[in-house]
Amino acid sequence: MNILVIGGGVIAVTEYGPIATPELIRSIPSLLISKNTPITLRATYLPQMLPWLIKFAKSANKKQVAHACEALNALLLAAAEAHYKIAQAAGVQGMIEPNGWYKAFETDTGYAAARAGFEMAANYGIEYEYLSQDEFYAREPNLISGGMRFKHAVYSPQCPQIRNPGRYVELLGEYFLKQGGRLEIAEISKLVMNDGVITHALSGTHMIDADAFVIAAGAWSRRLVAECGSNIPLDTERGYHMEIEADASKLASAPILWGERSIVMSPRDDSLRVTSSVEFAGLHAKPHYVLVTKHESAVRSLYGENLGQMQSKWLGFRPSMPDSLPVISKSKADNAFLAFGHGHLGLTLGPITGLLIADLLCGNAPSFDLSPFSANRF
């Protein structure tokens, strides 16, 4: 059993499966003691995490898994088109590259465990190419110097990549400002409600008035939503990243998920970005960078002498719902709307979520059923 981690700018339109499944629940004891475990839970955070974990376990039944797959797939089918639409409007469509991505396995056991999931994906319109070891390395000769470590690979041609997601988002922000938008940087300390509507937001320095409010604060959304009258079981999966200097011409042509290690290695123009798996420790615990740096020597071994110095490492917070479905919904406040909880699919689902929230704001009927993403489902 491996936990899929998505990173490095992959628009992961194929990743419809929730994290909570019966197979995962059965595998938790072995995952927690594995050397390369994709899940880490800090013991000091367990009491605070327990209510979320109980809901997570309750979501891991066949009926709920099928429901989550259908709901996520509906969003994902529209995700790439939404990216291309907004990128074209902003003039940055060239930043979206049709690279696809690989899932590669160094053992027969790891590949066999994942194969059933790949085959089931055909029911959701997802295409995979199954590659032998020779076929994979013929496509990716830059990896041969590492000794042809992967025995099996599958390739998904449907997933584009944004090599520089930070710059991509910055340019979309610039487009927003050119269209008449306004940026205010403030830490919101409180939302003030009167007669069922939010009248204004308070920061440490000033008051912000608006006709409508969208709470899209990622892993920090829960407190703000509570002030609208909803108790939503949102927590965070902490994800660690490292970036290693590299010449793009000496890297793989597309991101690679290393199945047994549950890490994604994504090529950038001047570096290789490596994304780790899941740590549950909340928003305030100190970083534990060894969860990603422990893979450095293995990653370097794939590329021989083609990687340079470590450039940076950092921690990101993935806003996580127990059932892996985001919240895209009206709130109990008549003029407040909710958009968070996308887990590993934040970049992928950002534009389609924005379009759906715009429909709700304008009173239009959304393009498909949003009930699976309701704030009231728990």
TrEMBL record:
GO terms for cellular component: cytoplasm. InterPro entries: FAD-dep_OxRdtase, FAD/NAD-bd_sf. Keywords: Oxidoreductase. Residues 59-360 form the FAD dependent oxidoreductase domain. Gene3D superfamilies: D-Amino Acid Oxidase, subunit A, domain 2, FAD/NAD(P)-binding domain. It comes from the Bacteria. Transmembrane segments: none annotated. The keyword Oxidoreductase applies. One of its GO terms (molecular function) is oxidoreductase activity. Signal peptide: none annotated. This is D-amino-acid dehydrogenase. It comes from Taylorella asinigenitalis (strain MCE3).
